[in-house]
Structure prediction request, 750 residues.
Amino acid sequence: MNAPAPAPVGEVVRHVAIAGNPNCGKSTIFNGLTGLRQKVGNYPGVTVEKKTGRFFGSHGEAMELLDLPGSYSLQVRSPDEAVARDVLLGRLPGTPRPDAVICVVDASNLERNLYLVAQMLELQIPVVVALNMVDVAEKNGLVIDLMALREKLGVPVIPTVATKGVGFIELRQAVSRTPLPNPPHCAQMPIVLELETVALAKQLPVAQEVARGEALLLLTLHEQAIDELVHHDRAIIAATKAAQERLRAAGIDPTSAPVEARYQWIGQICSAALHRSGLLNAVHPSDRLDAWLTHRVWGWVAFLAMMTLMFFCIFTVAAYPMDWIDAGIGALGKWVGDLLPESDLRSLITDGVIAGVGGVVIFLPQILILFFFLGILEDTGYMARAAFIMDRLMSRVGLHGKSFIPMLSSFACAIPGIMATRTIENRKDRLVTILVAPLMSCSARLPVYALMIAVFIPMASALGKAGIMLAMYLLGIFAAFAMAWLFKKTLLRGETPMLLLEMPPYRMPAWRTVLLRMWERGLLFLRRAGTVILALSILLWALATYPKPSNPDTPASEAIAHSFAGKMGHAIEPLIAPLGYDWKIGIGLIASFAAREVFVGTMSIVYAVESGDDEDITPLRDVMIGEIHENGAPVFTPLVCIGLMVFYVLAMQCISTVAIVRRETNTWRWPLFQIAYMTALAWLGAFVVYRGGQLFGWQ
Amino acid sequence: MNPALDQLLVAALILGALGFFLTRFLRKRSSGKACGSDCGGTTKSTPKIRP
Prediction:
């Protein structure tokens, strides 16, 4: 027999997927094997993040590793789980069916984790089991007989401790083995069910090796799920329903029989390979901690303390690197300003590109710190407890605890928040969370709040200013909860499902995983700033600069009135006049529709502030305080300033969020509805503040 | 700076920015995606979220 020709150096010789239950250490193993050779994207056709990386086998051969979303079984409940199933069945366009699967199993929870392995084996795909957290299992008093487990499963089983990098070499060796054998065993189904499965498999237009597994998955579907199938034609759906009818007539429930058969098989494996020592009955340290951290009172205290610490770091620790970036941007602007002669090009580069992109890049430290904290909270296992605690509060407005994480993420940016809704199985709950997540005050609102507070109460103490800032954040939270309640009572009425949540044991965070996640998010953020925000800044500058007045000595404030942006500001003036705003504020509102933070830069241009540093708002503040209407009344009264802040708390004003909502819902209907309701809410909020305040005789 | 060169460079940058959004839109349209490279996109065949 001829040996296969060696693959060219660097060419991927094997596609390997990594699968497992949530919280089993899958991502840590993925990061450990691939390091920085990772690529984050999306599966085409669905809204689930696709993470791939390259690693090298024991002979230096390149292999592509695909990180599948965490899943308890291949019976799909959420979009994430659907992706895992479709990849393994080889029916996701653009993603080849893996040549092998590393199935990560939490050794401390063997019985439940083996369920997914049982389903993998049915798909006739080479499987290598990474028996992770063997150290935790040992501490819990569990003794696993590896030889027995290997023999019963019929596949390689590699013990690992992912957080310490233990077992990675053996795992590489196991995956490098050529050829990787197909699994010899899987759970035995009742004979009638097996016959129906084989008969249905023959009708499926799929590869022979996956046909049985897919037929079994079809037969276990509930009636509604069968009706919603998109991958199969009517004949297959009819055949599935007919087979289910015959099974029921034979006294077999097609939805539960395979589950029972698999658990029976798992039971046999565990009785042979899993032994418990006397230590098992001792109270687990996680349980002792949970007595405090999920306590009705102390749980809230701990939760609020952790949130306070996170925000404290976001607003204080981030201030130092933000100052450095700010200084860097200022120096760059000055350098370019000195380098280029007075011209439109210089204005475009300094006022448009550097100020526009710099104004966004400055938030990078806050984004990194937020993801650092989220990574730690998730890796230690606390996030599940936080969701549990929040469930009590969320259920009052008709949401459940899983909506908490997207809403928390939205404090940094609504985009990762909305992406995090993918873990919510219930469609209505997911939609409600998507609709209200942008009401949480994201970091892009900070510069607007800071500017308005500076104009409103320039002489107030830091504590007073912080109080107003906090009030804006609380208003956002209150509005999000109120709107969620309203949507659940009207548009998206429905039962809130009970929160079923696994509480993983507490563990030390894997720092490498946390830092890699920060790195990924930082890169995505910078890529966006370098592309979309850059192009947008150039266009906004052009709108605020052209057409130019015929007289070149026209003051900047009159020149902007003459520009396209000025005309747009005048056009919307009748709409915003009831809020106490003039056309110049109108320009800021229009310009910041794309991104809220653009408001500060636009105000600088509008009020013709001669400042080389767009982030330094002091001169802008002084000009704004002195700005008056034609009748001599000040423009920025306290009511206008508070009204503007309220407007920015409640308004959508973020084109990227609109795009992400369009993508996540796959229709324009919901993002358009969201823009409409949030803009109406913002207008109403600002109107109530301004006119209501006037009724009380305030200014 | 020569005013003509100044205007030419400014026009090139503005057209470049417009071109960026146009090619992004056309690329997504042809591949059926709904957004840019940073988020991956969605094909039109994906079932919509229905309440």
In short: Residues 33 and 40 of chain B are 8 Å apart (CA to CA). The two ends of chain B are 59 Å apart (CA to CA).
